[in-house]
Amino acid sequence: MRVTGDGRVYRALGLGPVGVRPGFQGGGVGRRLIEGALAIARATGEELVFVLGEPDYYGRFGFAPATAAPFASPYAGPYFMAIALKQDLAPPESGDAAYAPAFAALE
Questions:
Q1: For residue 16, what pLDDT is reported?
Q2: Which residue ranges does the record assign to the N-acetyltransferase domain (predicted)?
């Protein structure tokens, strides 16, 4: 994922929508996957993680549409969310968030 804003490039990842097979839902599998991905992202110095998904679910982990709002994206809206992994990260006035081209091929 390429994320830019206010003349800089952010270290950022796109977390694909996490899906868990229905028979395994409710057992914490999705939570462990997301928490594990965020832990690795923090450990490797990423600044932002973006996701497309259900706000009520991803909000539990700190994802918010407001964090993604400064970044232009074809997916902008209430389901386009981000989490800042660094507490002192100042949001840009405006920016762009572009997923890999293969992501657009799924539409």
A1: 81
A2: 1-86
Q: Which domains does the chain have, with CATH numbers?
A: 2-20+28-102 (3.40.630.30)
* Token couple for 40: 């690795």
The model's pLDDT over 69-93, given as tens digits with 9 standing for 90+, comes to 999 999 999 999 999 999 888 889 9
Among 88, 90, 55, smallest CA distance to 70 is for: 90
Distance CA 39, CA 59 (A): 16
Mean pLDDT of the chain: 93
What is the Cα–Cα distance from 59 to 65, expressed in whole angstroms?
Answer: 9
Q: 17: which residues sit within 8 A by CB, 6+ positions away?
A: 51, 52, 53
